[in-house]
Design goal:
about 300 residues; Archaeosine Trna-guanine Transglycosylase, Chain: A, domain 4; about 20% helix; alpha+beta; nine-stranded mixed sheet; about 35% strand; Pseudouridine synthase; single chain
Length: about 300
């Protein structure tokens, strides 16, 4: 079974937990995810299955959109509500106008300190493994981009927000830094990812929905291949072109644009390759999604 499946991740599970459950549902091992979500977080978690795992390289820098709630009054060691409070809670009454003004400094390209409980590596060791053992976590600031960050509501000690960010941005760190600036501490109380690249919540299925589907109908739950990688134009190959591409050979394709890379389809649904322009209309398959691999991977 080959394709990209969007799961609406529930709170409390790691991204790897979700991958393991979907492996069991699909009955195959060739399943991976396109971007980790913290256990606390919910929402869009794209999974690649079968030969579509080869497309993961095109999603490493995907833009992401979030909605969430920041709780002011105390910080935590993980920068979210799963962590241990770093001091007694303060009584705080946040102002919408004040928070919107503060939010402005987090927009654009900024230097951000990753959370100590994160997958960032220190001399090859994930930071969270050191943090769990109460060892020093010597992380360095990294450059990230926050394209949109809007405070939607503010009431009592809580504020809701919407954000659109480049890959590698931690909304937990944004919450923590806002608390430091206000002098009262803060942490991320909840987070929901509403989009990753071209994938949205409208594409997502819960684990319960997937488990309830008949195995013969699981293919219908995958994202339509024509929706994938919209930055690449689509080309439909005839029998002769498809045969050359499947064997990894260069081929002349209909020149739909001057794009360096194109998606090559055979028929409406079968994505057979991502091809790179060599010269003129001559393309070489960069990644071949050959049908021969279907039989070897479908059973895990």
């Amino acid at each position: 079974m080959n394709g990209i499946l969007i799961v609406d991740k529930p709170a409390g599970l790691t991204s790897h937990d979700v991958v393991n459950r979907v492996r069991r549902i699909l009955g195959q091992k060739a399943v991976g995810h396109l971007g980790t979500l913290d256990p606390l977080a919910t929402g869009v978690l794209p999974l690649v299955a079968g030969n579509m795992t080869r497309l993961a390289q095109f999603y490493t820098a995907s833009e992401k959109t979030y909605e969430g709630v920041i709780r002011f009054g105390f910080a935590t060691d993980t920068y979210d509500s799963d962590g241990e409070p770093q001091g007694p809670p303060q009584t705080v009454e946040v102002s919408l106008e004040h928070l919107r003004e503060r939010a402005g400094r987090f927009r654009g390209v900024i230097e951000q300190m990753p959370p100590p409980f994160s997958a960032k590596k220190i001399q090859g060791i994930p930071a969270y493994k050191l943090a769990r053992k109460h060892k020093e976590v010597a992380l360095k600031p990294v450059q990230v981009e926050i394209k949109e960050f809007e405070i939607l509501t503010a009431q009592g000690s809580q504020a809701s927000f919407r954000a659109r960010v480049a890959s590698g941005t931690y909304m937990r760190s944004v919450a923590h830094e806002m608390g430091k600036e206000l002098g009262c501490g803060a942490h991320l109380e909840s987070l929901r990812r509403t989009a990753v690249a071209e994938f949205e919540l409208a594409d997502a299925h819960t684990l319960e929905q997937l488990a309830a589907v008949e195995p013969s109908q699981l293919d219908e739950m995958f994202v339509h291949p024509r929706k994938l990688l919209p930055q690449f134009p689509s080309v439909t190959a005839n029998d002769e072109m498809a045969a050359r591409i499947r064997s990894g050979r260069a081929v002349n394709l209909p020149d739909v644009s001057r794009s360096k890379q194109v998606k090559v389809f055979y028929g409406q649904r079968e994505l057979i390759a991502i091809a790179t322009r060599v010269a003129g209309t001559l393309f070489h398959p960069k990644i071949v999604l050959a049908p021969e691999t279907v039989h070897s991977q479908a059973g895990g």
